[in-house]
Design a protein that fits this description.
Structural class: alpha/beta
CATH superfamily of the largest domain: Glycogen Phosphorylase B
Largest sheet: 7 strands, parallel
Radius of gyration: 21 Å
Helix content: 40-55%
Number of domains: 2
Strand content: 15-25%
Distance between the termini: 20 Å
CATH class of the largest domain: Alpha Beta
Strand order of the largest sheet: 3-2-1-4-5-6-7
CATH architecture of the largest domain: 3-Layer(aba) Sandwich
Number of helices: 13
Order of helices and strands: EHEHEHEHEHEHEEHEHEHEHEEHHH
CATH topology of the largest domain: Rossmann fold
Shape: globular
Length: 374
């Protein structure tokens, strides 16, 4: 049984969907999902035939949510509860005590971004840390950087941490996107929640510098969030209304990536960002600040570039270099696609989780604690 918020379609939701989809295809796992918000994740999981249970956090009190989750879990009697993010971790720990004490697994999708939930932030942070350290059997980190955060910041023991990189389903084979043509503007894109941590203000500043050098370039940004108003003001301040487009929520992300020549990421920190994996899978090179686990995805001068944090001028110069050298751009894009196929596919991710799950079930059936970490 998975527990996830589903309030947005962001990295955690995209990863959870890929994992649930792959586990469903395996035919070896009876899947159930407790989700706290109506939306895209719930719809897509229902379409997969996964048992979904909505406990709407916008309509229910915290006590009502917990009571409903306990009622659901008592009926399901899950062997494993797998949670995503801090409030889901706390809920899973509470629920587990009322339904036969199943094994608890969490996936840490990056560094913590705890916001107000039902208690002051410091208490929520403390509860989450306590749960991961003392109640959960294992926490999966999506990158080495995230694993280091779990160890140093949250104090988890090394034997309670496993590293499994995110994976994605590969785009369908067929007609290749119309890129690198002289009859179209060079298009640079990025996608994500419009939150401060994503530093889209820095992206707009980078766009301003690039557009001063080359007026035949446009930037498109997919996503929604509280920073949208600020971003619009910044676009107007730089006079970029014709060259930077905020697209809002995009349903067809494949079409979004197909329309790009280059993908960029300006986040302050990342785990294994799904948007970068998706972009690379369509044959796009990526330029991103060197944060989190991005060096494990992007190899400099092979399939993109990682830029020292705060060095926006180098970021701009690499963009201009790729605009001016379409042969290099195409070569990096082809290498990016090959890397995703070989190292970051959904199949590979699910294959990493399946023996991990089976080992816990074996421990449950034998009544013994496992000694070997998957």
């Amino acid at each position: 049984m998975h527990i996830i918020s589903g309030d947005l379609w962001a990295g955690a939701e995209a990863m959870a969907y890929q994992l649930l989809s792959g586990l469903k295809q395996s035919g070896n796992v009876d899947l159930h999902l407790i989700i706290m918000n109506e939306g895209r994740l719930e719809q897509k999981c229902r379409q997969l035939g996964i048992h979904c249970y909505l406990i709407d956090e916008r309509k229910l009190s915290t006590i009502s949510m917990v009571a409903k989750a306990i009622h659901i879990a008592r009926k399901i009697k899950p062997d494993i509860i797998h949670s995503h993010r801090y409030k889901e971790n706390i809920l899973a720990a509470i629920v587990a005590g009322f339904c036969g004490r199943p094994r608890l697994i969490a996936t840490q999708h990056g560094r913590s971004e705890i916001a107000q939930f039902f208690l002051p932030k410091v208490i929520v942070d403390g509860l989450n840390r306590f749960c991961l350290r003392w109640i959960f059997i294992k926490t999966v980190a999506v990158s080495m950087d995230t694993a280091d955060y779990l160890w140093r910041a949250l104090g988890l023991n090394h034997n309670k941490i496993s590293i499994i990189s995110n994976g994605i389903s590969l785009p369908p084979k067929g007609k290749k996107p119309n890129r690198y043509g002289a009859d179209r503007m060079f298009t640079i894109g990025s996608a994500g929640r419009l939150f401060p941590v994503k530093r889209f203000d820095t992206l707009i500043e980078i766009a301003a510098h690039v557009c001063r050098v080359n007026t035949q370039v446009r930037f498109v940004i997919a996503g929604e969030g509280p920073e949208k108003k600020k971003m619009k003001a910044l676009i107007a301040q730089y006079g970029l209304e014709d060259q930077v487009q905020l697209m809002g929520h995009v349903d067809d992300m494949q079409a979004f990536y197909d329309d790009l020549d280059l993908y960029i990421n300006t986040s302050m920190h990342e785990g294994t960002p799904m948007s970068i994996l998706e972009a690379m899978a369509t044959g796009l090179p990526v330029i991103a600040f060197d944060v989190g686990g991005l060096r494990a995805i992007i190899t400099d001068s092979v399939d993109g570039f990682t830029i020292t944090k705060k060095n926006s001028f180098l970021f701009v110069s690499k963009i201009i270099e790729l605009i001016d050298h379409p042969k290099l751009l195409k070569e990096l894009g082809e290498n990016a696609q090959k890397k995703i196929i070989s190292r970051f596919s959904m199949k590979r991710m699910v294959e990493s989780y399946l023996p991990y799950i089976a080992e816990y079930l074996e421990g449950i059936s034998s009544g013994k604690e496992m000694k070997k970490s998957p």
